Amino acid sequence: MAKQEDVFKTIIAHAKEYGFVFQSSEIYDGLSAVYDYGQNGVELKNNIKRYWWEAMTMLHDNIVGIDSAIFMHPTIWKASGHVDAFNDPLIDNRDSKKRYRADVLIEDEIAKFDDKINKEVAKAAKRFGESFDEAMFRQTNPRVLEHQQKRDALHNRFSEAMNANDLAELKQIILDYEIVDPISGTKNWTDVRQFNLMFKTEMGSTADGAMDVYLRPETAQGIFVNYLNVQKTGRMRLPFGIAQIGKAFRNEIVARQFIFRMREFEQMEMQFFVRPGEELKWFDFWRQTRLRWHKALGLGDGKYRYHDHEKLAHYANAATDIEFLMPFGFKEVEGIHSRTNFDLSQHEKFSGKKIQYFDPELGESYVPYVIETSIGVDRMFLSVFCSCYEDQDLGNGDRRAVLHFPPALAPVKCAVLPLVKKDGLPEKAREIQHRLRFDFTCQVDEKDSIGKRYRRQDAIGTPFCITVDHQTLEDNTVTLRHRDTMEQERVAVDDLEKILSEKVNLNTLLKKLL
Ligand code: ATP
Questions:
Q1: pLDDT tens digits, residue range 380-413?
Q2: Cβ(219)–Cβ(82) under 8 Å?
Q3: By the 8 A CB rule, do 62 and 236 touch?
Q4: Which end of the chain lies in a sparser environment, N or C, as judged by fewer CB atoms within 10 Å?
Q5: For ligand 1, is residue 250 a contact (CB within 6 Å)?
Q6: What is d(CA 96, CA 183) in angstroms, rounded to the nearest whole number?
Q7: CA–centroid distance, residue 378 to ligand 1 (Å)
Q8: What's the gap in Å between 25 CA and the centre of ligand 1?
Q9: 463 CB less than 6 Å from ligand 1?
Q10: Does residue 151 line the site of ligand 1, with CB under 6 A?
Q11: How far is residue 18's CA from residue 44's CA, in Å, rounded to a whole number?
């Protein structure tokens, strides 16, 4: 565990050192759980957003995008349930003065039973080798069964307390299971209280009668309240989807794990409107389609898993998370939810406007059902960043830090490096850059030794370095160095555009999805 923590610390330090992510307001000692993206971070982030946006809007005839405002009429948040129910149960430890989410403390306790079970299984798998029957072992091993029974008992008690919104019972669970504060090590807990996660501010001057407004905690409601606008003006027929990328804000109780849980973050959400009764078929479609999108990046298929929700929100009839193996375990990156017609019906009720679809095939009107896919840009960024980072041992005491980004996501696609800073090589490098810069982010770097420049480009994940030497002036060829293998090949300058575009263009990635 300690080792993984160290790896994560190194990754965070690398993100800062190479201009990917900075703590917000750093010169004022920072603002907790708020981050800024630097010169390389913004490029990576934009590429992730483009990959999502184009996969949604260009590859599907029936999905269009919008960009709705962050401020919305406050009644929207009443209708959506956020004013009354977008709460987390919080608990304080009187000794450490730290605040925790009571549900997370209990979930961590449940995870300890899972760990114990997994350890038993791993031990047995090693002992029995090829003949090991994991399913049978899980069903029959007495130690596994005992852990499983304890886990289920805790899980059931926890689910019941959460469903009943029983805060006293949540505290009792924490006491009964002797859960201690990881910092103070004590059980000196306060009562559990509900805490609303929305940021509130005022719109208009007080003289005019200011109105309380919220910073949106999700982008989805901007889509729901524009459903009629888009359906009518786009003459959309069901099934169809509306996609949106934008900022969301949550006053998270416990901000930790770098950009995993932020107070200001970005979401990429798509609401897919379908005929009632067909929602589970479409839920299944999006569940699979979204996993394919993730896997096409080539970060490793084994790093993903589904987590199907046992406890569903009252309006949902199916929900799954796509989890990714971060340095701190499998964590949610994306949620796929079948939200029934809850949101549109609520907006009908609260706005008094009819929000229905006339289905020409059925000859009737109804409130459409909705499948939502909701992914955090920053969590996606973190999963890409962590899984691509390598502190590579090159032998003979030599090491390099390298980011093996999927080429389409890399902030800089190629760097042109004149071998020496004289004899017309820098000028030739600029000439090559001018040819390439219309299609690719392309840097010229002439400072330091060529070895140091390669390392700098490896550290920001540039897939290709193009080295200009004296031979280039004679025969118009360059050395093309591949980031991952460090192999070098001699290629003609005239072929560079073609070679690079096949490898680094987003289209190459998008075509994998069809
Ligand atoms: P969690 O259980 O981790 O708080 P959630 O289930 O509340 O997440 P959703 O409301 O389903 O999250 O939001 C959809 C996506 O938005 C999440 O899968 C995640 O990628 C992203 N997201 C949610 N909260 C945050 C946050 N505080 N910081 C960064 N990304 C977030």
A1: 999 999 999 999 999 988 999 999 999 999 999 9
A2: no
A3: yes
A4: C
A5: yes
A6: 6
A7: 10
A8: 23
A9: no
A10: no
A11: 12
